[in-house]
Amino acid sequence: MGTRIKIFLRVLLLAVVALLFAPDATYAQERKATPQEKATIEACFTSKLDSPEGIEGCLFKVAEPCADAAGGSTFATSDCYRVEQTIWDGLLNAAHRELIGELDAQQKKALLKMQRAWIASRDATCNFRADKIRGSLAATMSAACFTRETARRALLMKQFTEL
Predict the structure, then answer these.
(1) Residues with Cβ < 8 Å from 44, sequence gap 6 or more?
(2) Rounded CA gap, 2 and 6, in Å?
(3) pLDDT per residue over 35-49, tens digit each?
(4) Residue 24: its pLDDT value, please?
(5) What is the rounded CA–CA span in Å between residue 143 and residue 162?
(6) Is 2 helix (H, G, I), strand (E, B) or coil?
(7) Is the separation of the CB atoms in 41 and 60 below 8 Å?
(8) Taking 90 as the threshold, does the pLDDT of residue 73 lie above it?
(9) Is there a contact between 29 and 18 (Cβ–Cβ < 8 Å)?
(10) pTM for this one?
(11) CA 82, CA 124: separation in Å to the nearest integer?
(12) Quick one: which of 5, 10, 135 has its CA closest to 74?
């Protein structure tokens, strides 16, 4: 058998093996927050806006029960945090849209600059966490970091709308 055919067969075998493990990865990308999960975070967020503890008491109200039900699967647990992050991201985006409506052109530019800097900082922080931890917990810890940082930013953005 020729070298090219052997290489082709190896690549094909690797592709087939990768597809066998794809359902977990696909699930992790497709899971959406339920209306009940959204309501849980939104209600907590609204009730904690003026609280001295901030939204810390609201963090992982969706992710932790979801992770417990996932039974320890790294993909599923990471997905639980990503699902909650999308809820917080929705709250962040809503506050951002509200704030944009209150700003003049110069303030809008400053807000955009601030948000871009925050995104870079959040990404660097959470990706460093994964690089530092490595191993099977890295994805879960990184997903939790993105959730936490997005929640904190949602609170800050909402507070800006109340100034």
Answers:
(1) 55, 57, 58, 61
(2) 6
(3) 999 999 999 999 988
(4) 44
(5) 29
(6) coil
(7) no
(8) no
(9) no
(10) 0.80
(11) 17
(12) 135
Token pair for 99: 């704030």
What is d(CA 69, CA 63) in angstroms, rounded to the nearest whole number?
Answer: 10
Residue of 34, 160, 40, 3 lying closest to 96 (CA atoms): 160
Rounded CA gap, 157 and 120, in Å? Answer: 17
pLDDT in tens, 121-144: 999 999 998 888 888 889 999 999
Separation of alpha carbons 38 and 55, rounded Å: 15
Cα dist from 74 to 18, 37, 93, 144, whole Å:
17, 20, 28, 12
Rounded Cα distance, 149 and 92, in Å: 11
Residue ranges of the domains in the chain?
A: 1-30, 32-161
State the average pLDDT for the chain. Answer: 85
Q: What are 64's two structure tokens?
A: 């932790």
Q: Would you say 100 and 114 are in contact if contact means Cβ atoms under 8 Å apart?
A: no
One-letter amino acid for residue 155 of the chain: L
